[in-house]
Amino acid sequence: MRLVMLFLVLTVLALSAPAALQAQRPDAPSLALRGPYAVGAQDFTIDGPDARRLFATIWYPALNPEGQEEAIRYRSGFAQLEGRALADAAPDPSTGPYPLVVFSHGSGGFRFQSTYLVEHLASHGFVVIAADHPGNTVAERALGTTTEEQFIQNIGYRPLDALALIDFAEQLTAEDEAFRGVVDLTQIVVVGHSFGGYTAAGVAGARLSTPSSLAFCAMNTRDADACRAEVLEPIAVARGLEALPEALWPATADPRVRAAILLAPAFVDLYGEPGLESMNVATLVLVGSLDDVTPAATEAELYAQGISGPAQVITFENAGHFIFVDECFPAALEFGLFDLCSDAVWDMPRVHDLINHYSLAFLQAALAGETSAQPGLEATFPGVSISAGE
Questions:
Q1: Residue pLDDT, tens place only, 140-172
Q2: What local confidence, expressed as pLDDT, does residue 145 receive?
Q3: pLDDT at residue 205 in the model
Q4: Is 119 helix (H, G, I), strand (E, B) or coil?
Q5: For 308-354, where are the E strands, in sequence order?
Q6: How many structural domains are present in the chain?
């Protein structure tokens, strides 16, 4: 019911809060401050795996010679949300190429769920691309057009969707004169929230494991035969496999991925220890200690411990699962949706500043080849704890 109400809010109302979007808290850490670049945003429709249509948006450093106010209305279906960017602005190639960030939304989310983060990264010299994952968006779930079968298929498809976004970015830089010299395909970062964290891990090298997945099914009261027939075989079909692997699955990774940021990631048990060992990139894991959707102890911490690359964990004490999505729009409050875009303890602009700070600090260090902690990542704030993944 809440998803239905959320969809009604987004379709019936143009939810805007331009004053809040332009404001910056006076206590924002330095790396949470808006960067030196104007931000442009363009929408594209991309061909994904098995003819999946991916509705995508790219954010990038943009030219703004007339000093226009950065204000945009994002649209996804009938949803309309306000952001801080310039629609269809010309890219700024002067200091490019810029690293590519691929963002994957959570289950029942959409590509505009974390605009505070994607816009922030673009303002600091990153190109960010995100798409709605078909069969797993808020609109589809709200309208009842998604099914459990589609959810399971998305376990297979989602990393392939992300690879399609990388392919599109490469095509764009080669064929679109405006984007020539703008995207650095040798420096790719994957970022994802919840189901999107699972997605990002797969593109960064983690591999599905049949034994681990069978154990995961058993924990969820599905016997081995049902798990193979109802879960693993549909995933294998989505991956284009002729037979179900007995152990580790073929990788869905791009070797150019240099780093990953996992925001309250889900489904670690589908990879298991054997599958996570294949992920050998610098990784930052952020999570709330009171997350009851993807609990830190059984998801985020296991990701950080299992991968073979260097990992750090940032824990927001007493925070829940939804600190990583945009703050509520005022009209959403009228429909009783406060808990889906807020936190019981944390002020959302404050926690978003800290997420932006740590994400940018991590990416600057990781892409420079500095896998040990550096000042931005060592900075401590009340309510935040930092630990190594081991």
A1: 877 777 799 999 999 999 999 999 999 999 999
A2: 79
A3: 98
A4: helix
A5: 311-316
A6: 1
pLDDT at 220: 87
- Whether 164 is covered by a domain: the verdict is yes
- Given a contact cutoff of 8 angstroms between Cβ atoms, the answer to whether 101 and 126 are in contact is yes
Nearest alpha-carbon partner for 385 in 259, 288, 282: 288
Calculate the CA dihedral of residues 285, 288, 291, 296 and round it to 10 degrees.
Answer: 40
Cis-peptide, bond into residue 97, ω within 30° of zero:
yes
Of 331, 318, 309, the residue nearest 288 (C-alpha):
318
Q: How many CB atoms lie within 10 A of CB 269?
A: 19
Output the pLDDT for position 331: 53
Token duo for residue 270: 């589908």
Q: Is 93 strand, coil or helix?
A: coil
Question: CA angle at residue 356 from 350 to 358, to 5 degrees?
Answer: 105
Q: Is 246 exposed, middle or buried (0-12, 13-18, 19+ CB in 10 A)?
A: exposed
Please report which helix (H) or strand (E) contains residue 26, including its range.
none
- Chain centroid to Cα 34, Å, comes to 20
Q: What's the CA gap between 326 and 344, in Å, rounded?
A: 15
Burial label for 321, CB within 10 Å (0-12, 13-18, 19+), is: buried
Residue ranges of the chain with pLDDT lower than 50? 1-21, 373
Provide the CATH number for the domain around residue 299. Answer: 3.40.50.1820
Q: Is 227 inside any structural domain?
A: no
What is the domain extent for residue 196? 2-209+248-388
Q: In 206-325, where do the E strands start and end? A: 257-263, 282-288, 311-316
Q: Is 45 in contact with 56 (CB distance < 8 Å)? A: yes
- Alpha-carbon span 144 to 303, nearest angstrom: 32
Q: Is residue 243 part of a domain?
A: no
| Coil vs helix vs strand at 184 | strand
What whole-number distance in Å separates Cα of residue 213 and Cα of residue 229? 12
The distance of Cα 132 from the centroid of its chain, to the nearest Å, equals 11
In a domain, 91, yes or no: yes
pLDDT tens by residue, 248-258 = 999 999 999 99
